[in-house]
Amino acid sequence: MFFSEAAARGCARDNNIFFDPPGAFAEHSVEMSTDYDGAWKEALEFYLHPFLEIAFPDISARIEWSAGVEFLDKELQEIVRDSELGKQRVDKLAKLRRLDGGDEWVLLHAEIQSQPDPGLPLRLYQYHHRIADRYQHPVVTLAFLADEDPAWRPTHYESETWGCRVRFDFLVAKLLNLGTVESLAAGGNPAGIVMAAHLAAQQTRRDDAGRFGRKKELVRQLYERGFSRKDILELFRLIDWLLVLPEPFELAFRQDVEDYEKEKAMPYITSIERIGRQEGRQEAQRGAVIEALELRFARVPEGLREEIGSITDPSKLQALFRAAIRCPDIEAFAQEL
Q1: Does residue 61 sit in the same domain as residue 167?
Q2: Within this chain, do residues 283 and 171 fall inside the same structural domain, yes or no?
Q3: Over 80: is that where the pLDDT of 277 sits?
Q4: What confidence score (pLDDT) does residue 33 get?
Q5: What is the rounded distance in angstroms from the CA atom of residue 32 to the CA atom of residue 243?
Q6: I need a labelling partner for 180 at 20 to 30 A (CA). Which of 105, 118, 199, 311 fits?
Q7: Which of 116, 150, 177 is the last residue of a domain?
Q8: Rounded to an integer, what is the distance from CA 181 to the centroid of its chain?
Q9: Percent helix, strand, coil in the chain (nearest 5)?
Q10: 265 Rama class: left (phi>0) / alpha (psi -120 to 50) / beta
């Protein structure tokens, strides 16, 4: 670790609120990579209804939400398995009950697109056709454009040869047009929090201090807007996923969360974090023991690996690490277990 926790916590605090982190950190800002796709895959699983309420309110109003949602991700993978880029995008296929159709159900195919892609219209046309052909039921195709280009807004696919024409229109929502980080976070909609985090990640790609501030305020919104404990934990995970911070800022951020939860007497995140940190330390200790053995003796028997992997006592793991360094051979180390 190149920065000490004490140094990271040296940010000025007043009433448990952090000011901007030290300028020394900000001077070394680097572009942070963000896994938008992974976060959105989970966000749609948990918050499809809230997502549609913001991005496609007319569609949301036509669905009988009390009937539940059935996701058909495995079936969608089978339908598009010959797509070269299928695993690099966020596609969701959901079976939903129509509000005006009795027992009639409809398939909703939604794609989140974080970068402009000229192949999007054709792909959506192909997927729409394949899904409809397989299920013989109505299909609604939605494209959520979460890229940073305000001029990119495809709405249809069209092909024509010698007067034979095909046109396919799909529904589109553009994240840039739905609001600001502040307005999306303030609405009390959990999907709005994810959208706000996505925008914040784009806006602070090369601004560590700015990202620190955005992340801190978004997490505080989880408490200020009265989200349930379950939602706070899930949304915190998604915010953490989207707004990755370099180590000194992350340490300061975690301390801020801990201070804020103490102030609110709601230790939701920090209780989980403490468990995670403990498990993480134990995993690191086990890995260090095995790595030391590999460096000294090249091969570590599988049974020995499994036995080390089952140890959870930190003091025992620390003793084994020292033994891995000083033991003359692998057999002598095994006697220490």
Answers
A1: yes
A2: no
A3: no
A4: 61
A5: 9
A6: 118
A7: 177
A8: 17
A9: 55, 15, 30
A10: left
Any long-range contacts for 297-305 (C-beta under 8 Å, 24+ apart)? Answer: 297/329, 297/330, 300/330, 301/330, 304/330, 304/333, 304/334, 304/337
In this prediction, residues 290-301 reach a mean pLDDT of 85
Do 280 and 173 lie in a common domain? no
Please tell me the distance from the alpha carbon of residue 217 to that of residue 221, in angstroms, as a whole number: 6
Last residue of a domain, one of 177, 209, 242: 177
Q: What is the mean pLDDT of the chain?
A: 84
Which domain, by its residues, includes 309?
A: 274-334
HEC per residue, 130-189 = HHHHHHCCCEEEEEEECCCCCCCCCCEEEEEECCEEEEEECEEEEHHHCCCHHHHHHCCC
**Looking at the domain assignment, is residue 210 inside a domain?**
no
Token couple for 336: 């220490």
Q: What is the DSSP letter of 116?
A: -
Model confidence, pTM: 0.71
Q: How confident is the model at residue 319 (pLDDT cuts 50, 70, 90)?
A: confident
Closest to 181 in 3D by CA, of 235, 156, 140, 218: 218
> Per the structure block, which two tokens stand in for 90?
């966020």
Please check whether residue 290 lies inside any domain of the structure. Answer: yes
Q: Single out the residue of 98, 125, 124, 96 nearest to residue 111, CA to CA.
A: 124
Residue 44 resides in a domain = no
Q: Is the dihedral of CA 207, 210, 216, 219 positive or negative?
A: negative
DSSP element (H, E) containing 306: helix 302-309
- Is 84 a domain residue? yes
pLDDT tens digit sequence for 16-41: 333 344 443 444 444 556 778 888 98
Are residues 278 and 173 part of one domain?
no
Question: How far is Cα 229 from Cα 269, in angstroms, rounded to an integer?
Answer: 9
Residue in the block written with tokens 């140094």: 7
Number of structural domains, the chain? Answer: 2
CA distance 196 to 203: 10
Question: CA gyration radius for the chain?
Answer: 25
